[in-house]
């Protein structure tokens, strides 16, 4: 018994010495002459995706247009209001009346106002014609490999962004001036109507509206403005903090959520002020902004609050990877399975980050596999193995095959040998 126990101890010591020696040799193997394998427990795959960088802020719905209606006490004495707060009025609807003090003076004032409006309308019409006649320069022609200009419209060359932007600005300016012209036409019709009343009646004038909207305020004390009208079209107004002002600019896309209605939509940052609401050495400045909605809901009301996400940067259709699959010492890199099924330490360059996904500028292609963990098992050029997921094996289906089919498959297997 003593000899057996002594022999067992010797074998055990030899096994321990063998394991220790190999571990020591591997530890000292700086040139990696010993072929080692890596155990990879988790992988991720690079995919093509759209990434966005967003800035969160808040805003409130308000009327897109406000029109103040005034009454000059030098022209006459106020008579009565013909509307009340909350009323909806259209162009040409009656607002209030007043009695004229001096017929000839008021006639001259109204005629002068008509002349001024007609001159402004003529200037606006000329400006619209000038913009419409402006021809945006065609995009530069591209040369093919033979050195000749290629005028084929089916070419894959895209229209330069500057050309598209100029065309857009042209159409936008035309629409803006046409809206202003329509406003002036409504004002002219209102003033001409007042002049007709004066010349027919001689003493009383009924002022009509040149604006369609809702009466939101009436000054019973006759302080200016006498009435305030607001259009039913809504926009969002808010203010951006000083530290975020440099990130935003006009025409950026905005994601909008209205908690009151559980309603989501999108819009455009139509204006961002260059000057803050107020300046104070002890407080951060805030810069007003306006957002127009792409598809406003009829359920929205002025005063409703909204949560906004301004898309300040985007990377569309780019190769992305999980940030957990990327590592950095001095430079960023990832452990990638190469074409031969080996681990490869590969340097990469990244860009935008969004919710755990990172844009890969260079170093990876779509569909490549990246090792995630355990990180201490990653070795360059190493063969790897992964755990067997028995839950993916459909063993039970083997036994669910009909006896006759199982016998046929078995005989076919024997005959094939």
TrEMBL record:
The keyword Secreted does not apply. Residues 145-159 have a biased composition (Polar residues). It comes from the Bacteria. GO terms for cellular component: cell envelope. It is found in: Cell envelope. Its main location: other. Pfam families: Beta-barrel_YknX (PF25990), BSH_YknX (PF25984). Residues 100-127, 169-208 form a coiled coil. The chain crosses the membrane at residues 10-28. Residues 235-310 form the YknX-like beta-barrel domain. Keywords: Coiled coil, Membrane, Transmembrane, Transmembrane helix. Residues 135-161 are annotated as: Disordered. Residues 67-222 form the YknX-like barrel-sandwich hybrid domain. The keyword Cell cycle does not apply. PANTHER family: EFFLUX SYSTEM COMPONENT YKNX-RELATED. This is Efflux system component YknX. It comes from Halobacillus karajensis. The gene is yknX.
